[in-house]
Amino acid sequence: MSVKEIAMVSGSYDGAHLSKSFKASETMTPQQYREQDAYLLIQPD
Known about the structure:
Keywords: Transcription, Transcription regulation. This is Helix-turn-helix domain-containing protein. Residues 1-36 form the HTH araC/xylS-type domain. This protein is mostly helical. It has one domain. The chain is 60% helix and 0% strand. The chain is built from 3 helices and no strands. Helix 1 (3-10) crosses helix 2. The two termini are 22 Å apart.
């Protein structure tokens, strides 16, 4: 799901606003967060 799609679903102003808010809260961008926690998305066989 893209940041824009998440913003729309969550009622945020837009993707850029959500990204800025996320970075202020988590001290990393949504993309950095995804890369760091990508192992959570991998499902075992």
